[in-house]
Amino acid sequence: MSKTLELAKKFVSIDSITPQDKGCQSIMTNHLSRLNFEITDLKFGEVDNFWAVRGHQSPVFVFAGHTDVVPVGDESKWYVPPFSAQVKEGMLHGRGTADMKGSLAAMLSATDRFVKDYPNHKGSIGYLITSDEEGPAIDGTVKVAQYLKEINQTVDYCLVGEPSATNELGDVIKNGRRGSLNGTLKVIGKQGHIAYPHLANNPIHLVIPALNDLCNEVWDEGNEYFPATSFQISNIHSGTGVTNVIPGEGDIVFNFRYSTQNTHEQLKSRVCVILDKHNFEYQITWEHSGYSFLTPKGELVNACVDAIKTVKNINTQLSTSGGTSDGRFIAPILEAQVVELGPLNATIHQVDECVSIQDLEDLSDIYYHILKNILT
Length: 376
Hints:
The mean pLDDT is 97. The two termini are 29 Å apart. Helix 1 (3-12) runs antiparallel to helix 3, helix 3 crosses helix 9 and helix 7 crosses helix 9. The radius of gyration is 24 Å and the shape is elongated. Helices cover 32% and strands 25% of the residues. The protein is α+β, with helices and mostly antiparallel strands and 376 residues long. The longest helix has 21 residues, at 97-117.
């Protein structure tokens, strides 16, 4: 059994449902200690994190990832038990195989090989690992990144092992992510009898023209790397549940997924300008859950593209699509170049999550060549 598969099976057999780690990180730190990494355990709240580094010079290349997984749901619906880490027909089955314990195993085996081949490599190798990526993400990577900034630990390049591939390993690299801004709008009207509308003020009627304007607003045109900023309403709630009462209030929940052409502050301001134009009373609360970030073509992207070409002989595509990842903390806080590169995302968060064993071996090889491209 290869080192990559051995490690992956160990990780997957641990039911580290977010925000629990249950010993996954100890396996990692024990492995890294043998390679002369300096380990710093960083527990924030109930969340286990660690920072590990080998070397004290620039450039600093960091592997980032998480040991927590999403819940499995009804275990009876799984083809194999979700934490049995069984191999069937060339596939490793279990929760976290693709998201992202397989990547963690590939990182470790690649690092092991690289350090043995290049014991005096230039620069430094780091690991930034959390168990709070699939949950609130409050006491995880964001806290570790802030800690690293406080101690003046630089990070030049960061590879997040999130599953990025669409059809085959290496076909997509995420070199950025859209930002995410959530808004909750309360429209204040006046409750009344439905037969006497002149004595009431219907908040639904008040807000519909404004919502139409928000839905039709062109927030930006996107750019070479990002699609245009998207505004989506996710929930509308109003009324008492009966047919003869005009409601007194209405609540609308919405989200922006925004490109680097906008900031969350600009979007908040523009929303208020549109709402104020319609002259009704409202309250609005905001939650900013992720900055947009972009790593343009350059040292890190080129190193990844070259490694994929070397191992898989395919041309990779750069993409900023999809949801958020912990790159949203690492890129702005540490001012690092960040990419996401991992296995296929076809089964992530699903029943019968699985990953190809050959893909794990190839992923380890890709990571090795990335280290070689940057640190030799």
